[in-house]
Amino acid sequence: MTSNAVSVKELSKKFGKFVAVDKVSFDIPEGEILGLLGPNGAGKTTTIRMLCGLLKPDSGSANVLGYDVAKNPEEIKKRIGYMSQKFSLYNDLRVAENLDFYAAIYGISQASERKKRVDELLEIAGIKDFRRELTKNLSGAWRQRVALSCAIIHDPKMLFLDEATAGVDPLARRSFWDLIYQLAGRGISVLATTHYMDEADYCNIIAMMYQGKIVALAGPDEIKEQQPGVLIHIETDKPVEAQEFLTEDNTVINSSVQGVQLHVTVPDEQAIPNLRARLDQAGFAVHALEVIQPSLEDAFTAIVQREREES
Ligand SMILES: Nc1ncnc2c1ncn2[C@@H]1O[C@H](COP(=O)(O)OP(=O)(O)OP(=O)(O)O)[C@@H](O)[C@H]1O
Ligand SMILES: [Mg+2]
After folding, report:
1. Is there a single domain that holds both residue 149 and residue 272?
2. Domain range spanning residue 121?
3. Which amino acid residue places its CA nearest to atom 5 of ligand 1?
4. pLDDT tens digit string along 33-83?
5. Given the CA of residue 39, which atom of ligand 1 is nearest to it?
6. 254, 54, 279, 269: which is closest to 160 by C-alpha?
């Protein structure tokens, strides 16, 4: 039986009267990656801060690596890795010195043990060639790898990443995720927040958060499959205007503009000819119209639209 690295039940946090986290529940089995997704202000960072033992919950419970966040926050802080968007590295230290410094902070007191661990991480993170480089000279993508290495220098079994890939180019994000995967393969469990939907496909479990609540919790494929109706991809010169026009249409379950494309969900394929006819009649030049599989971004847009309509 696999046990859970993290187990959260009805966890809640208020700031004054404002409910930032509202009865959130999920589990992260050992060695798995959970992606916590949601728009700005959804409550992701607040959830992470409670799980890291940095913020006391108002109600509910959370267990991290066998410790209760409310009762044993200090035990949790020692045993987890945490990388926030505003991770701090010492710019005037060399890469290996930064790692050594964090190892000392985490209480690895023997210099020989610190060196062993620093060498190991330089290897794992692929940053050996930079060991003597001043940290301030590194590009964003390499700094990020150094920051991750610092966050796991003490060999934590649980890693929290809060927008760790923000501001890094797509290629570097991909190789960063390869590294996260490797870590999960070594038995480290991961909770990662991100605004990039393409990253969610790397996760074993997706928890979508909206206005403090979990609105979807499943594997990425399941979340896509759970979406009702048929998704149509439309290419037209005026996607925004076409979406506006279609909001009047009662066969349209939801719609979203993604760059120059318009994505529209209808109940079934029978609704498609009518939809096309109405767009033609209204004078929208339709260059392409086809049924596609929903992406996580489509699923997320649909779920949030449903939540908005219900609230
Ligand atoms: N210390 C605080 N005092 C008052 N309100 C707070 C505090 N911390 C967070 N909030 C509010 O709680 C809500 C959730 O914030 P949180 O930072 O958890 O969101 P988030 O999902 O991480 O957003 P983002 O994607 O922008 O990082 C926001 O409305 C925020 O303004
Ligand atoms: Mg945040």
Report:
1. no
2. 4-220
3. 15
4. 999 999 899 999 999 999 999 999 999 999 999 999 999 999 999 999 999
5. 25
6. 54
